[in-house]
Design brief:
By secondary structure, this protein is α/β, with parallel strands linked by helices. The protein is about 40% helix and about 20% strand.
């Protein structure tokens, strides 16, 4: 099932040319069928990039879907401005990418993992008419009960660490590969999901100037995201878009994810990727694709 990341179509779009430069890199796999069934937007998490979806883009396109995986602001090959890391800003970046630059006119299937799940939730709140379905998970959504209960626990120690100004950048500098590997090893069930080449690829991305700062800034905005998520819930009610909460069968938050989703989604079902820990698109890409296509097709 694996596809070669370098063989997919890579492009970058300038959402803003200066003050600051907002440049978004994305990867695209066009459907192999003559008739396109729809568009799938894949939103990665931390500490990853669009490379996270290297095994699943070809299968989605083979099933008839135009599949787009951006590096959100600050990640991967995208630019790394100092500000703009609330999930509503990151979601707006991706909506602008699709609607203003990539010619997307129909509602899309939004799939978000980890930080990407938070962005996907913001996307569905901000642009509900442009979302055909929502798949998200593997994240304690700021503003949820599980977020408030877990954010200061040892299991989520990095939430506090990443939120400290400047110190994480200082301590992680020069040790990016070891730091990233800690998360891949600790949160996964299948160590073979990340090869040495994968580790080197991610370490190269996150060793670039400003990359770790941008990654930490995504966490430093969680309390702002909490305010946004609760305000949307109070003003708009639960998300009306048909939703699925998707996590790993062996993930740390497997038991809590469905109740979290029901706090924010009106129509939600829960599913698990068989045998996977946190890194569901990489640990079991076949079942990841199967569960998402099954949900999309209804």
């Amino acid at each position: 099932m694996a596809s070669t990341y370098s063989q997919l179509t890579h492009r970058q779009i300038w959402l803003q040319r200066s003050d600051p430069e907002i440049r978004i890199h994305y990867v695209e796999a066009k459907p192999t069928h003559d008739t396109q069934k729809g568009t799938i937007l894949l939103i990665h998490g931390f500490p990853e990039s669009s490379y996270q979806f290297r095994h699943v883009m070809a299968p989605f396109s083979s099933a008839g879907y135009r599949t787009i995986a951006p590096d959100y602001r600050g990640a991967g090959y995208s630019s790394r401005p100092v500000t703009g890391y609330t999930k509503k800003v990151l979601a707006t970046d991706l909506h602008d990418l699709l609607t203003k630059h990539l010619g997307t006119t129909e509602p899309v299937h939004v799939v978000g993992h980890d930080i990407g799940g938070m962005i996907a939730h913001a996307y569905a709140n901000l642009f509900p008419n442009d979302v055909a379905s929502l798949v998200w998970g593997e994240c304690p959504l700021p503003g949820s009960t599980i977020y408030d209960e877990w954010k200061h626990t040892p299991a989520l120690w990095h939430f506090n660490f990443h939120s400290v100004p400047d110190l994480p950048e200082l301590l992680v500098s020069g040790h990016e590969k070891q730091y990233l590997k800690h998360f891949y090893d600790r949160l996964g069930q299948n160590p073979a999901a990340f090869t040495e080449a994968d580790l080197d690829f991610y370490a190269t991305l996150y060793s670039a100037p400003g990359a770790m700062r941008a990654g930490f800034n995504v966490y430093r905005t969680f309390e702002e995201d909490k305010v946004d998520n609760r305000r949307w819930l109070e003003e708009k009610g639960k998300v009306k878009v048909r939703a699925m909460i998707l996590g790993g069968e062996c993930s740390l938050d497997a038991l809590k994810s469905e109740s979290m989703a029901k706090e924010f989604d009106e129509q939600v079902v829960a599913a698990e990727v068989d045998g996977a820990g946190h890194w569901i698109a990489e640990e079991n890409p076949e079942d990841f694709v199967k569960k998402i296509l099954g949900f999309i097709k209804g």
